[in-house]
Each structure stands twice: as C-alpha cells, then as structure tokens.
C-alpha cells in the first residue's frame, strides 16, 4: 500500500489561544513572577494533543499581526465594535509567538494580515508541494479553504470532546453548501463577530437554499427576481434583489477572502519531531511543564495508558463524525474573540 502524502498541521494561534484563555480563566495559572500563563499552556496543549492524534509531519502556527490591519484600513468598521482585550489576555497573545519559536515551533506573524491568511497560504503551500493539510481553528471562515487535500479541525465549545474534523465530503452535510460556495454563504449571512452584517432575511438556511438552487450569488442575480422569489420567498427575494445587497455581498466577500500568497517558510523547516530538551526548556522558562504530553511533537513514544501523563491536557480525544443531528450556533454566538 502506498504511503499517504505527508501532512501539515496549521494552527490559528489567535483563535485557539482565545479559547484557551476563556476555558482556563478560572485556573489562574501564573509563572513565578506572577505573569499569566494559562492560555499559553492551553495553546501548547492544543498543539500537543492535535499532534498526538493526527501525527503530522510538520507544524505551523499563525498569529494575527498585532500592529496593523489591511482589512481595517480597507473598511474601518471591521472588528471595530469589539471591546478592548483584558490585559492578561493581551499579555499572553503578545508572548505566544516568541514562546513557540523558542520551543522550536515554526511561527508566522504576517504584517497587516491575520492567522486566517496564514492558514490559507500554508494550505496553498502544502498543496503545491504535494502535501495534505489540516487547519485547526475555532473560526468557521476556514471552511472556505477545504478541498480534497485540505481539512479543517474545528475546536468548539466543550473542548476536544466536541472537536470536529470536516473534509470536502462533510461540509455539505453540515451546512448544505460546498467549500467553493462557502464564501458566498458567509457573505450572505454576515459575521457579527467581525462587524459585518449580511443581507437581511438571509440566515444560514436561506443562504444555503439560494446557493443550492443557483450555485453562486451571481447566477442567482442573473436568474431574475421571479426565480429567486420561488426559491427563498418574497421577503428574502426583495432584499436580495435590492442594490444594497450587491454592495453588502461584495464588501463581505472582499473582507472574508483570505490571502493565499503570503510567504510561508519551507516545509522542511517546519518538520517535527522538535528537540525535546529545547522545547521543555523554553516552556519551563515560562512556568509551563507539560511532560509526557509532548511526545508526538518531540518524537517520543505514546504513553502506555491515558493516565500515564499527569498533566490535564492529555486525554483520549473523540472526533465527532457528523454534526447532522446537532444544532449549530447562530453567527456571532461563539464570538469570544
């Protein structure tokens, strides 16, 4: 049997660190100097557990540029409604890239762009090299990147027991649209967490119904008001055929589009295993001791039993095969960041 193509694991550092921050805020982990570390610890735990279950050949972690935003320069209201981050969250966000680099992890922080753009560019780089990729994030925008070589591991509320690995075959079952339609789908319904409102009367079900019938928003507009009305009803059709709808969809698609051409380090520099001593030294310098849970990142053997690792990050991880029977949250419901 031929060996599968090598696998690149790409993490959305911002979304996962935010999730770790909110999940572990009650723990209050700090280093000897009193600096908060629980979100950093959780992020490394996510990376270690993903590596243990996916067994990737290389790892890249992307972060948002902390200094400037090309999207906000394009559209000033983009994410402008979000409150200022808590100081202990900001401190850990700023510390995360250097900590991971010191640990030997390949980190990309693109000027003016976001972790989503790193995911898109890394997936494109992997595809061009004949690799597969898994994009690990809490953000649904990554669904637009799914193809035969690219899957998305989405971490949701409830931790790893609720994580779902979504591929090209699974996305239509989940949302009723294909990956190549997902940007239109998201543009129609909007994304309140990014301060991008959608077309009125277009939630997930109506957007999926329109795209199932016409394929793209352009094809729907070309089909004319009568066919649109038959598909989505009078009220939704009225809003969709109004001139404002084209402006909303064009703006959302532009801002939701991810860069596929950002510089990504050669995959050879992102390969694992990492140096176990260097990684543990870097983590311990910040008061983080994950012990045996780092085995997949550092080329060790898996623990003999799930309870062999004393750290709380390493537990058996169950993938849900389908979300068809589960109710997905409405847009904005998971807007923790």
How do the strands and helices of this protein lay out in sequence?
Blueprint lengths: L6 E6 H12 L13 H17 L3 E5 L7 H5 L12 H16 L3 E3 L6 H14 L3 E6 L12 E7 L2 E8 L3 H6 L6 H8 E2 L4 E2 L6 H11 L2 H7 L1 H8 L1 H7 L2 H14 L19 H10 L9 H4 L39
Parallel strand pairs: 1-2, 1-4, 2-3, 4-5
Antiparallel strand pairs: 5-6, 7-8
Written overview of the protein:
This protein has 337 residues and is an alpha/beta fold. The chain folds into 2 domains: 7-175 and 263-308, 5'-nuclease (Rossmann fold); 179-256, DNA polymerase, domain 1. The protein is 41% helix and 12% strand. The chain has helices at residues 13-24, 38-54, 70-74, 87-102, 115-128, 170-175, 182-189, 204-214, 217-223, 225-232, 234-240, 243-256, 276-285, 295-298; strands spanning 7-12, 58-62, 106-108, 132-137, 150-156, 159-166, 190-191, 196-197. The protein has a 6-stranded mixed β-sheet with strand order 3-2-1-4-5-6, with helices on both faces. The longest helix is centred in the first third of the chain and has 17 residues, at 38-54.
């Amino acid at each position: 049997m031929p060996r599968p193509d090598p696998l690149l694991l790409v993490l959305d550092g911002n979304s996962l660190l935010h999730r770790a921050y909110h999940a572990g805020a009650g723990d209050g982990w700090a280093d000897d100097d009193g600096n908060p570390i629980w979100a950093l610890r959780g992020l490394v735990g996510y990376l270690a557990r993903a590596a243990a279950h996916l067994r990737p050949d290389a790892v890249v972690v992307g972060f948002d540029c902390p200094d400037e935003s090309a999207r906000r320069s394009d559209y000033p209201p983009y994410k402008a409604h979000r409150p200022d981050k808590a100081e202990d969250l900001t401190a850990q966000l700023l510390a995360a890239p250097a900590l991971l680099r010191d640990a030997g992890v390949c980190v990309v922080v693109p000027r003016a762009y976001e972790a989503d753009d790193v995911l898109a560019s890394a997936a494109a780089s992997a595809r061009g090299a004949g690799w597969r990729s898994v994009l690990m994030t809490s953000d649904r925008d990554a669904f637009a990147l799914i193809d035969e070589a690219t899957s998305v591991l989405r971490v949701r509320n409830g931790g790893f027991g609720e994580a779902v690995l979504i591929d090209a075959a699974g996305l239509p079952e989940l949302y009723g649209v294909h990956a190549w339609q997902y940007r239109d789908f998201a543009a129609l319904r909007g994304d309140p967490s990014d301060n991008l409102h959608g077309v009125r009367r277009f939630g997930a079900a109506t957007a999926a119904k329109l795209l199932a019938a016409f394929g793209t928003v352009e094809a729907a507009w070309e089909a004319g008001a009568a066919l649109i009305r038959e598909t989505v009803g009078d009220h939704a059709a009225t809003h969709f055929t109004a001139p404002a709808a084209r402006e909303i969809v064009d703006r959302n698609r532009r801002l939701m589009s991810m860069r596929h051409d950002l510089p990504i380090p050669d995959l050879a520099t992102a390969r694992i295993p990492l140096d176990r001593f260097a990684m543990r030294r870097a983590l311990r310098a910040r008061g983080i001791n994950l012990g045996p849970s780092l085995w997949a990142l550092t080329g060790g053997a898996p623990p003999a039993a799930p309870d062999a690792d004393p750290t709380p990050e390493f537990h058996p991880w169950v993938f849900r095969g389908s979300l068809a029977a589960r109710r997905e949250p409405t847009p904005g419901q998971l807007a923790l960041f």
